[in-house]
Amino acid sequence: MPPNILFVISDDQSFPHASIYGTSWIKTPGFDRIAKEGLLFNNAYTTNAKCSPSRATILTGRNSWLLEEATNHVPYFPEKFITFPEVLKNRGYITGKTGKGWAPGIAVKNGKKRDLIGQNYSSITTIPPAKFISNIDYFENFKFFLEEIVKDQPFLFWVGGLEPHRRYQYRVGIEYGNKTINEIKSVPNYWPDSENVRTDMLDYAFEIEYFDSHLERIIKELEIRDLLENTIIVVTSDNGMPFPRVKGQVYPDDNRLPLAIRWGGGIKNPGRVIDEYFSFSDFAPTFLDIIGINQDLHGMEDFSGKSWKEVFFNNSVKFQREYIILGKERHDVGREDDKGYPVRSVLKDNYFYSINFEPNRWPAGNPETGYLNTDGSPTKSEILKLKRDNVNSYFWELAFGKRPKETLYNLKNDPRCIVNIADNKAFEDIKSDLNKILLQDLIYQKDPRVMGQGKTFDDYIYADKKTRNFHKRYTNGDSIYAGWVNESDFEKLN
């Protein structure tokens, strides 16, 4: 019998924020069990650290910059690209989802709404433990889905949590989660280490733990129904945590995500820890290869990713990927004419090199429109206030300041990418080698950005009419706010 696939994806959860990775202030027994009984990945990367482009890469097996409109955030999904759930449905799988699927954006085909994943099972609700947590009962909706399946019919189900996406109830981690700020051993050095920031981090942790509690119940339900061993369970996230300099930017901390995969009937020698680079473009080709589907016959040719099937079946097989490429185009609006902030990066060994193609633009969005590519939060507000009060602009520069055309970081000495060594002559050869690797690979892929057609990404229509041309509307005096940033985030025009 073909294996079932259960794809469990949180919304905005960074690596290494699961307890099995050693993060003491977050408890994730569901994720930990999947990792212990399967594979735990230390170097899993999305190609684009924002919700809809990251999820588009998962579904299509294509690098983000090869997805036309879907390279951008909140796009119209191109009709030409097929998703692996659509292929599985055509091969007899029953497909469904609960919570957040591919979003935000609009997907239609022949003028009708298109289900990129499957039928929506989100009608069963619960009383959430705090404000701003979704009332969708992920577990009960999955259970209802299982009850509708014909015996022995293979299924694909997507559990899309809306946690730990913003907003958070302030101090919920302390007041409801019984956490203390001293549990956090260190704060990333691109944020101020304050009680306010630590409280924000604990609120984020509370929401991760809530979503993980649904995963625990889902695993037990599969056991009860004798479905666990023949189900490939993937647990991951779509992009990094919704904090300044992480979500929506292009650094390892933004794109590196938790990943555990369990398949009792297929993974040999479970409990392995995988250090090789895993790209989110690998999911689709892996699933189709395991099931025995020829992607060329189903419109999914030209995968960017590779299959991990042999690694699952044989613990002596090493996955061969010497480097991984990351990038972005337009995420949230807030710049003139809805322009993006194009970046391409390569991560190899202990070095991370980036090309910022438009260094005169603001990387997180314009100041006068609230740095819209960074969610509103206590951490963001504190960094902005430190600068406005002329106390400290260091953290503002790291999170919101303009960046040079090229950046290079030594990850062994500087894992948070604070000190740019691109202009250091001692690293000139390394920079040159990484530049060559990056551009040659992207030219081979026919990335429009490096083929002289990068303007097309700025010309694609933004699907959300409420925020389209936000910069023009806001600076013309309209009293409008984007909804995911605070009013205090907006800077006064000079």
What this model shows, in words?
Helices cover 27% and strands 15% of the residues. It is of the alpha/beta class and 494 residues long. The chain folds into two domains: 4-322, Alkaline Phosphatase, subunit A, CATH 3.40.720; 324-489, 2-Layer Sandwich (Arylsulfatase, C-terminal domain), CATH 3.30.1120.10. Strands 1, 2, 3, 6, 7, 8, 9, 10 and 11 form a nine-stranded mixed sheet that branches. Strand 4 and strand 5 form a beta hairpin. Helix 4 (138-148) packs parallel to helix 6 (195-224). It is globular, with a radius of gyration of 22 Å.
List the helices and strands and how they pair.
Blueprint: E1 4-10, H1 29-36, E2 39-45, H2 51-60, H3 84-90, E3 94-99, E4 108-109, E5 112-113, E6 119-120, H4 138-148, E7 155-160, H5 172-175, H6 195-224, E8 231-237, H7 252-255, E9 256-262, E10 272-274, E11 278-279, H8 283-291, H9 309-313, E12 323-328, E13 343-348, E14 351-356, H10 378-388, H11 394-399, E15 406-410, H12 428-445, H13 455-459, H14 470-475
